[in-house]
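Slide 14.
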Amino acid sequence: MFKDYLKSRINVIILMIVVEGVFASSYFLFDMPAVTVLYPLILSTSALIVAGVIDFVFTFNKHRKLTQNEISASSDPIEKDYQEIIRKLKEEEAYSRQKTTSDYNNMVEYYTVWAHQIKTPIASMRLQIQSEDTESARKLMGDLNRIEAYVEMVLTFLRLDSDSTDYLIKEYDLDEIIRPAIRKFSREFILKKLKLEYEPIEFKTITDSKWLSFIIEQVISNAVKYTSEGYVRIYMSEPGILCIEDTGVGISEEDLPRIFENGYTGFNGREDKRASGIGLYLCKRISDNLGHKIYAESKVGEGTKIFLDMRAKKLDVE
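Slide 15: predicted structure.
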């Protein structure tokens, strides 16, 4: 602050030095005694220093108030003009923030209602075909699963930035979360003739079951979608780290660091026009909120491994 103050007053300081130099030189030009020169110089310099200290204190107090969004009254007409500009800008900012919040809340309300309404025909169609065990029924069930997944993505995306959350953090048996996710894609496994390698993990973790289910379902969905033959394997790579591995098309080396970015689809996503590039982004956001860590390993043509680190964190348990 002091350096900035000196820089802002550099012209005044230079002017004072020049004035005192002219003042002192006038005494020496007339061969006056040194005392008659030094005494007024010391007095004037002392007065300037005192004035400078007072001005610095005044400037510092004004700076402190401005950093706390306090604008003090001023008699300076130029400063009054600046204060009026700041006041108008703050009013415009408040109006813009209020309008943005209102528009966002309206959008969230509309899409939330839409998502809940569309779940009714999805449930109806599911009931009509779940009793059939034909290839056509399996394909329709797979399409319904994808539609339902996209609807869940919309709801999840809206809830992530909501002012309130419905997290219920406590200890869960991981197998109780994984099994329903596997059953949800059972017909797609059968339709694509993919082998599922899964044995009870018998691991407990501190998390939220609903949000963790979304992550696991999204990863399994991607594994099934991009695997035409081979297997999907679900296991613990080491205690506390869940791995979902597939033998699918894999992810290129240049795409791998960006797969958790919003809207990024990579080469495989551009080949598959259905890819939205939002699924893994949501998984990353949710895992961060839950205190977990998600990362991937992959090679093109060999498959992909998605790791979810759920080792114990210091979380509040309800």
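Speaker note: The chain has ten helices and seven strands.
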